[in-house]
Amino acid sequence: MGRPRLHDEHLRQRLLEAATELMATEGPDFSLRPLVASIGTSTSAVYSLFGSRGELLEAITLRAASSLVDAQNEADVDDPVQRILGLAHAWRQWATENASMFQVVFGRGESTPAVDEARDSTTEPLLRAVRSAVEQGVLHGDPETSTRTIFAAIHGAITLELLGLYPAEQADALFDAQLAAIWRSWATPEHVDAVAA
């Protein structure tokens, strides 16, 4: 019978969760000591499970980006209007339920090829939806440009809400108004009224 592993997948997940919270509040330069102390382990666990501090930071971002992509994919439907609205609402719900991961994906952090790819992947569901809507004549313009501006508006609205700069009782209405304004910017004339504020 072999010796039990001291550093297992359960500990790895606990480190990722705790490190996500620290990175969201303190940035990527957080100390490993309070991290390992918060879950009752040692720095050797970080190196055993991740290889290095840099690989831990990379794993945090990859985990958060993957979670956001999964949340959007669950909202994927065929109707082009509902698909884009659904993605926006899924993005907002995920961000409000996972504020620390939201900060990790879009906050400060070292850039590596894997991190850059993970961050880029978070807008892929929206880009596919916009491309499809353009092909169906529902939206106009270059899909890449449309996606970037839609993303910027959605991201900005969510960020302001998470910062507490929107009154809680108005947050839903303000987000819906933002979506309606975004839609009018890119909808073809016959679909401009498909989304109401």
As a percent range, the share of helical residues equals 55-70%
Main sheet summary: none
CATH superfamily: Tetracycline Repressor, domain 2
Kindly name the structural category.
Answer: mainly alpha
In CATH, what is the class? Mainly Alpha
Sequence stretches where pLDDT stays below 50 over 5 or more residues: 1-5
In the CATH classification, which architecture applies? Orthogonal Bundle
InterPro entries: Homeodomain-like_sf (IPR009057), HTH-type_TetR-like_transc_reg (IPR050109), HTH_TetR (IPR001647), MT1864/Rv1816-like_C (IPR025996), Tet_transcr_reg_TetR-rel_C_sf (IPR036271)
GO molecular function, one term: DNA-binding transcription factor activity
Protein name: TetR family transcriptional regulator
Pfam families: TetR_C_33 (PF13305), TetR_N (PF00440)
Q: What's the quick description here?
A:
It comes from Agrococcus jenensis. With 197 residues, this protein is mostly helical. The chain is 70% helix and 0% strand.
